[in-house]
From TrEMBL:
Signal peptide coordinates: 1-27
Matching Pfam families: Nucleotid_trans (PF03407)
InterPro entries (UniProt xref): Nucl-diP-sugar_transferase (IPR005069)
Protein source organism: Pelagomonas calceolata
Protein's recorded name: Nucleotide-diphospho-sugar transferase domain-containing protein
Keywords: Signal
Nucleotide-diphospho-sugar transferase domain segment(s): 126-214
Keyword Signal: yes
Length: 290
């Protein structure tokens, strides 16, 4: 996402497209915050094949009471959303600036915007899910029971960005939930400011802001490395290329769908590389084998 003027024009065009689609789809639905929820994600054209893998599971796990909001980083993302989901709302995702850091923080900007909208409006819960966090069942009823204004899923591998040895995990910025409250908005605003300028990843910035007010989403609800029972949301570790992700994860998802009890056998459970083997045990305890 370079900052040249061509990229600038493309982004401006994407913004116009997004705005046009948003206006076209804005027949206000009846919203009761006890039953209605927002799920937000961020997409660029490169990740469209992953969105194609993600969306059918998401759609099967949810119904019309869930509004999907996709923050689009380019035209191809808008096109992919329109292809797969005519009801989804699209937003412009650049945060108003054409720089890399702003794009990386698109999820934070988007959720902050939605939390503020909902705080002033329908007061729906806002869930953020990366398109590589696969919804096998709906996590929503479990997420509703969390009282903290903001709660994150966890990454228990010692090599995760923002990992804290004392805590035994990193907050994972790929899946989190926000209540439509001032407390959530102020954390998101602080997160946005801390992540600005590209000095550290969005996840590192979130972990630097961690305090006792931040909730944790249980591993039964969102898990990176399931050891048997299928979590509501599986957020696997990543083979590098998009095509590899789609291929390997698609195979595992097909096994889960067919009821294969061993679906997760052999899936990677770390970021690999020289840190291979430093894996989490149940409960977030970390083993460091050397
Ligand atoms: C729903 O709205 C009420 C107030 O209108 C609020 O007390 C409650 O916390 C909201 N639910 C969620 C999930 O934020």
């Amino acid at each position: 996402m370079g900052g040249g003027s061509r990229a600038g024009h493309r982004l401006a065009r994407a913004a116009l497209l997004c705005a046009a689609f948003a206006a076209a789809g804005s027949a206000t639905p009846a919203t009761d915050n006890a039953t209605h929820t927002i799920v937000a994600t961020v997409l660029n054209g490169k990740y469209a094949p992953l969105f194609e893998l993600w969306h059918p599971r998401f759609a099967a796990a949810t119904d019309a009471r869930v509004e999907l909001v996709v923050a689009c980083l380019d035209d191809d993302a808008v096109a992919a959303v329109r292809r797969l989901d005519t009801r989804a709302r699209t937003l412009e995702a650049t945060g108003g600036a054409h720089d890399v850091a702003a794009a990386r923080l698109a999820k934070v900007h988007t959720v902050l915007r939605l939390v503020r909208e909902e705080a002033a409006g329908s007061k729906r819960l806002v869930i953020y899910s990366d398109v590589d966090a696969f919804w096998l069942q709906s996590p929503i009823s479990r997420l509703r029971r969390i009282e903290a204004p903001l709660a994150f899923s966890r990454d228990g591998v010692a090599t995760a960005a923002g990992f804290d040895g004392k805590r035994g995990f990193a907050l994972c910025a790929g899946f989190f939930v926000a209540r439509p409250t001032e407390a959530a908005a102020s954390f998101l605003d602080a997160w946005r400011l801390k992540g600005r300028g590209g000095r550290s990843s969005d996840q590192v910035a979130a972990n630097e802001l961690y305090d006792e007010g931040v909730g944790i989403i249980a591993d039964e609800v969102v898990d990176r490395c399931p050891r048997g029972a299928v979590p509501a949301v599986w957020h696997p570790y990543s083979p590098a290329q998009i095509s590899g992700k789609v291929f390997f994860w698609g195979r595992v998802l097909a096994k889960i769908a067919s009821g294969d009890g061993d679906a997760f056998a052999g899936v990677r459970c770390s970021w690999g590389g020289r840190h291979k083997g430093r894996n989490r045990r149940a409960g977030g305890v970390v083993t460091a084998r050397r």
